[in-house]
């Protein structure tokens, strides 16, 4: 053998011998889990020596295997240029460096892969125990869990029964008080079964929750059923996790919605303040009536909130989904088809607002309905008659017909009340005029100025129609003023001995008593006899 070859063999043998001797001489610090040594660390890392490093890795492994949802298959390995990292989900378990590989015949990636294989195999059997002692402990733990579950259900039933009795006693005392005060008790009795049924439903729901929470604990006690426990918990944990994550991700959009809402709200408040000032006369705008202020504010408020919703809509959760958009379109179509008459009334209400045909408190007549306006909104107008009857009239009906307003100029020019009497031709018209005017002037509620006046409206076959016209500012008391005017007309005509024969004044007076009350008849009055004329 050549001399150079012998020298090379000796050098290689010396290197292997030195490496083996270094491994034997170096003191390794084991990572022990459940009295089982997984591997040893011979070198430190960073600020930790080998012993501290082994202790830290041991604590990390014990931490992850103590989790109720631990799954060894979630352990992963990532090789970088200078270090190999074994992690569980996003938590780092240990790191293998190049110095660790010098204490092994494997290179760094191979050594890290062997550590990962050891962790998966050993930790997968962490809870597995074939000795009878462990089996007995598991059974006793399961019995304890079942006993605790039974005790909790028993306590829940007792507590529910106690709460039910308390509610029944409290309810009976309340019903006795209501009965003593004369209030109807049957309604309260009908509510009692609803409350007890609700309490029973709550009890059943709580029992189901307790059983569902106890099942994962039972399954987790036995290694063979551990996956079932993890699956049961995932049914509860995963939805809550998704909800919490969705809420966290939605926070920026929620802040945007809050800002848009706050800005819109303060704009609406500013417009309301200006509208109130205009309605109270503090601010005046040419050709803008004070009664327009609040209706205009309501319209602007609706438009602003509608615009706000349009701006907010893209930030709502699920607004970009096809289902959400389809439901929105469907509801819009239903609203459009089902509210055509309502929309017509709303448009009519807006038009009536700016037409100003009447306002709250005015006495108006719409068709056959007459009364005081007690409410007006975008949909309807409500009148209250002199008989305290409330009449609701759609705004579209008012807009399509004619409206008589008795109050508009009553305070300024005066409302003219008129009534007609028919008097025979034998009474001078000057006398009738004087009597009617004096009756009007004596009526409470009739204005002194302008003065009442009389119109002769018709020359009938047997009588003349006289219409007396009187001014009043009391448009809301028309019925009372009319009644007093009629009373005074009767009194004045009776005092003057003038008969009011309506509708016809008979021309045959012989043998008939005068048609006025007895207290107005003169004392020397005698009923005339029948006058008969014949040929001589």
How would you portray this structure in words?
Among the domains are: 22-124, no CATH class; 132-221; 344-405, SH3 type barrels (Roll), CATH 2.30.30; 415-505, Alpha-Beta Plaits (2-Layer Sandwich), CATH 3.30.70.100. Helices cover 54% and strands 15% of the residues. It has 13 helices and 13 strands. Strand 6 (363-366) and strand 7 (369-376) form a beta hairpin. Helix 5 (132-180) packs antiparallel against helix 6. It is elongated. It starts with a helix and ends in a 41-residue tail after the last helix. Residues 298-339 form the Mechanosensitive ion channel transmembrane helices 2/3 domain. Residues 1-20 form the signal peptide. Residues 342-407 form the Mechanosensitive ion channel MscS domain. It comes from Mucilaginibacter pocheonensis.
Apparent shape = elongated
- What is the total tally of β strands? 13
Strand content: 15-25%
Counting DSSP H or I runs of 4 or more residues, the number of helices is 13
Secondary-structure-derived class? alpha+beta
Contiguous low-pLDDT stretches (5 residues minimum) are 11-25
Rg, rounded, reads 51 Å
What series of H and E elements makes up the topology?
HEEHEEEHHHHHHHHEEEEHEEHEEH
C-alpha termini separation: 199 Å
Looking at how many chains there are and whether they match, the oligomeric state comes to: single chain
Sheet with the most strands?
5 strands, antiparallel
User: If you average the pLDDT, what whole number results?
Assistant: 81
Percent of residues in helices: 40-55%
* Largest sheet, spatial ordering of strands: 9-8-7-6-10
